[in-house]
Structures are given as C-alpha cells and as structure tokens.
Specification:
With 203 residues, the chain is of the alpha/beta class. It is 43% helix and 20% strand. The protein has one domain: 2-enoyl-CoA Hydratase, Chain A, domain 1 (Alpha-Beta Complex), CATH 3.90.226.10. It is globular, with a radius of gyration of 16 Å.
Length: 203
C-alpha cells in the first residue's frame, strides 16, 4: 500500500507493506508515479518506508508471474522523480534493495538511518539494472564504485554508502523524520520558482 499526505506544502509518500518488507507491486508503482507526477505543486517530495525497511524492491510473486523486474514502470517512476522542480528527499528508514534503488538515486537528497544496507542484486538474479539507475549511480559514486555495486553485487553498509556519496547524511532512526522536518523548514520558506531555478543550475 502507498500512503500520501501533505504537511505545510511538503508532500510525503510512504511505502507501507511491512508484511512483505515493503516490496513493490505494479499497482504500487503506478500509485507512486501518479502521486509523484503532481508533486510539482508542492515545494518538496519526501519518500520513505514504514517499519525497518525502506523497500525490498520488486514483489517476487509479480517478478515470476508478470516480469515486474523488467517493467518500464521503474524507469518511469525514477524519471518522474528526477524531473520534478521541487526538492526530492529519500528518507531511508532501512534497507534499500533492487529496483527501489532507482527512486532513491533519483532524489536530490538522501538521508539514512545507520542500520540501512544498500544493494542491487541484478547479477545474482540475472537481470539488467534500469538504464538511468546505472547512469545515476555512476554520477553519484563514480564509475568504479558503480561497477563494484552492480557487477560485483556488493551489499553496502550505510557507512560505506556515505563514504561513496550515495548517502548525504546519517541520522539515528528515531530522529530521521525530525531531521527531514528541519530540512523542509527552509524549503517551505523559499520563494516560488527559487527551488527549480537552483536545481537547473546544478548539473
């Protein structure tokens, strides 16, 4: 299930399927694409998960039955997030795996709890990563580290992800949403058009 709420012109999206480690179905991806698509009306979009996992990626039942792992919905979601003129923040409350990495990579800012792990096991599962995921990972971490993650299938601790530049800040789990609120305070007070103008200046 995907839940969404608005707080002071800040849009929050929560992946809420804790019984399945917040694994994503095709319908859930559609919901996220729809909500993200209208988030330019807001000053920021925050994406997080319920419980102790951000998302385990694709729902394995749908991977087997519907080829969800190779669906274009993943690329559409990350592209939608990437193109937003508002500020996008991944509030990483726990481990990020597989296709869920795409939406995290597409965000402007990534804040994580120290317990989180990051991995994209395409080699193990026999799939290719989404094209934009590989490009963004290389841009953020550098090509050598992107190869280390994708080709060698390495699972990164939060500390290593921070050292690689994949995580911008590490915050204790009980404080992560408070930290997000702090970041959003300045964003909420920005002038209309200021955020998009700054984003356009940064390659």
């Amino acid at each position: 299930m995907i839940t969404s709420h608005l707080k002071d012109d800040i849009r929050y999206i929560t992946i809420d399927r804790t019984s399945k480690a917040n694994a994503l179905t095709a319908n859930m991806l559609d919901e996220m694409i729809e909500i993200a698509g209208v988030s330019n009306e807001n000053k920021a979009l925050i994406i997080t998960g319920s419980g102790k996992v951000f998302s385990a990626g694709a729902d394995l039942d749908e991977v087997k039955k519907k080829d969800l792992a190779t669906s274009t919905k993943w690329e559409l979601l990350s592209d939608t997030i990437h193109r937003l003129s508002c500020v996008t923040i991944a509030a990483i409350n726990g481990t990020v795996a597989g296709g869920a990495m795409g939406m995290v990579l597409a965000c402007d800012i990534r804040i994580s709890v120290p317990e989180a792990y990051f991995f994209y096991p395409v080699m193990k599962l026999g799939y290719l990563p989404q094209p934009s995921d590989a490009l963004r990972l290389s841009k953020i971490c550098g090509s050598s580290r992107a190869k280390f993650i994708l080709l060698a299938g390495q699972k990164l601790t939060c500390k290593t992800a921070y050292e690689f530049g994949l995580v911008d800040e590490i915050v204790a789990g009980t404080n992560i949403l408070s930290r997000i609120d702090e970041l959003c305070l300045g964003i909420s007070n920005s002038k209309r058009g200021q955020l998009s103008a700054i984003k356009e200046m940064i390659p």
